[in-house]
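cache lookup: miss for this entity combination. No prior model stored, computing from scratch. Input as submitted by user K.M.:
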Amino acid sequence: MSSQKLIQFFKNSNLVSQKAAEEIASTFSPKEIKKNSFLLKEGRICDEYFFLENGFIRAFANDIDGNDVTTNFYSSGQVVFEVSSFFNRTVSKENFQAIVDCEGWYITYEQLNNLFHSMHDFRDFGRSILVKGFSSLKIRMLSMITETAEQRYDTLLKTNPEIFQQAALKHIASYLGITDTSLSRIRKEYTKK
Amino acid sequence: MSSQKLIQFFKNSNLVSQKAAEEIASTFSPKEIKKNSFLLKEGRICDEYFFLENGFIRAFANDIDGNDVTTNFYSSGQVVFEVSSFFNRTVSKENFQAIVDCEGWYITYEQLNNLFHSMHDFRDFGRSILVKGFSSLKIRMLSMITETAEQRYDTLLKTNPEIFQQAALKHIASYLGITDTSLSRIRKEYTKK
DNA sequence: TTCATTTCTTGCCATTTGCTAAGTGTACCG
DNA sequence: CGGTACACTTAGCAAATGGCAAGAAATGAA
């Protein structure tokens, strides 16, 4: 696997130069994740800052009743890691599982910190990844409060159609904050329109 | 106002030394916010990284129908700023309003970046603030999905009782993702128990 | 292929929550 | 003092969503 896409990913941020992007990318190691296997399991400390080059990953947590709740979906071109576990070196409450065969590149916490020290521009890049994740969660939170389940479904369908091609409906349902039964009904009503 | 609490706040993170904490604190300027006035108004770029020494602040956004939705509450000892607007230099969709008279300390975006350059340890501190905010939002999101309105009310009452002493019920209601009518009903049922 | 498992849909009913509007109490202002 | 505004509660009804269970469809394994 060539690291072209990884280099391009850094460059697209407009926060690092071509040369820096190449140098940063050279510290990443390739990684494959077979369908259904895990990038991270709950109870472990997240130690991989993973760029997903292709494939699809679902993050989920288990609530008190043991129900599996989808916390996020990741498609190619995104950075995948559990922020709190990774930076605080604490055990993760979430699982990250490959929904299809995945390929990508990773560095460890130690390597990331070394990069932050040696490559000045990369710090801003790292921050922008954090800020982006935070912002999209805020938007999602606001939509949970102000929109109906059908509106949230509609938005997700339009903005992230790939999720519907990859993930099981029950997993999309918990991501939307509803039961699979409700999602099924919403889809039924929706196709009528 | 003495900057003792500000210095202590940095030290408590265990990410900066006493000396560094003093130096960092010395770049902050004091700021008062009178009850009902704004730290940030939507449409403007957030340029203040604000440490709230005492007082209480509510953040809110307006949805499509013009309803005011509380996005967060901040009590003393917290850093108050809109992450996306501040770091991306984009206009804010949120308002930050003092609920009571507030006092605190702030630095601008430029000053913060200068500090990041000159004070190496402060970067980790800055990141920890971001990570903390992100994590608590994730927890809140999970509770929105898995818990009933009454459970969320109960949790908020136990973990942040000061909110109920400071904020109007309708503002707490939208923070919990329900209407003020529902919150009133929940409180009624709740006191029966 | 066949069988078993999982996923998805559907129907019925209960529960939660929202919407609207009215009523009460309180604070503030002239 | 009266009046207005605002916050909160309450009631009745409607809409959204959940829980449960049964059945259909898809998937995967032997």
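stored under new cache key. The first helix of chain A runs from residue 4 to 12.
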